[in-house]
Design goal:
The protein is built from ten helices and nine strands. It has 262 residues and is of the alpha/beta class. The strands form two sheets. The chain has a seven-stranded parallel β-sheet with strand order 3-2-1-4-6-7-9, with helices on both faces. The chain has a two-stranded parallel sheet with strand order 5-8. Helix 1 links the parallel strand 1 and strand 2. The chain is globular and about 55 Å long.
Length: 262
């Protein structure tokens, strides 16, 4: 199979591209920084630039006769209070986490339609199912991607193209180094410091990227997909059904305690 993965310079994307390349698949990694690997080919691409995206797909199709799978993994985190977040920071986040992923889907869909087959995985977060304190815009950007995915499933199904969202919990990567971090104003500093420390400890104790790669391989082998899949530690996944069944105020109190805000 020919597989495209975005955000392959490090973290989950690099691990996944290597993993699937070792399995014998033809893997192309699209990232702004080149990755040194014998198991996949990097095409330097900023997915927020649609011209670069279209050029990358054209380059791949010079060699490959088809594109079987797209995994939209590229993304970034953002931390800070809603009040402190600037328009520039918000737009930068949404441009990558939402617009970039949409541009990638738009670029591969003509080929997938022509071959009447294709699969697209949009990497989201368990945090997209709830507004996380001091990560409101990150939650919002991933939630927006979730809803776009639900919509496009209807639109491309006549051509046997399947699309799903994979919601991940905390994964042990260097995401903390690449987050957008807003300037935290004085009223929020004390609470933010506690939440941010906890946030980073959850990443440090997170699931190994190789486990994510193995799960995605199983997902790719499924004949049919539902819209949403969830992968992470139980303590994070349980937050989703609890949000559905618990009274809102009770749930928010649990979240405050979980984030050590009380």
């Amino acid at each position: 199979m020919t597989i495209l993965i975005t955000g392959t310079s490090a973290g989950i994307g690099f691990t996944l591209a290597n993993y699937l390349g070792k399995k014998g698949h033809t893997v192309y990694g699209l990232s702004r920084k080149s990755a040194d690997s014998t198991y996949f080919k990097t095409i330097a691409t900023d997915i927020t630039d649609n011209t670069q995206v279209q050029n990358a797909i054209a380059e791949i199709l010079k060699t490959e006769s088809r594109i079987d799978i797209l995994i939209n993994n590229a993304g970034m985190g953002m931390v800070g209070a809603v009040e402190d977040s600037s328009q520039e920071e918000i737009l930068k986040l949404f441009n990558l986490n939402l617009v970039g992923s949409v541009q990638m889907m738009t670029a591969v869909l003509p080929t997938m339609r022509a071959q009447k087959l294709g699969k697209i995985i949009n990497i989201s977060s368990i945090g997209s199912e709830m507004g996380l304190p001091f990560r409101g815009f990150y939650s919002a950007s991933k939630s927006a991607l979730d809803k776009v995915t639900e919509a496009i499933r209807y639109e491309v199904s006549p051509w046997n193209i399947q699309v799903c969202v994979l919601h991940l919990g905390d994964i042990k990567t260097n995401i903390a180094e690449n987050r957008v971090k807003t300037k935290v104003s004085e009223p929020y500093q004390s609470t933010f410091t506690k939440v941010y420390s906890l946030m980073n400890s959850h990443v440090d104790d997170g699931t190994e990227p190789l486990e994510v790669a193995a799960y995605i391989e199983k997902l790719l082998n499924k004949k049919s997909w539902k819209a949403h899949f969830y992968f992470g530690k139980f303590g994070q996944k349980i937050g989703i059904p609890l949000k559905w069944i618990l009274p809102q105020n009770f749930y928010e109190n649990l979240m405050r305690k979980y984030n050590k805000m009380d």
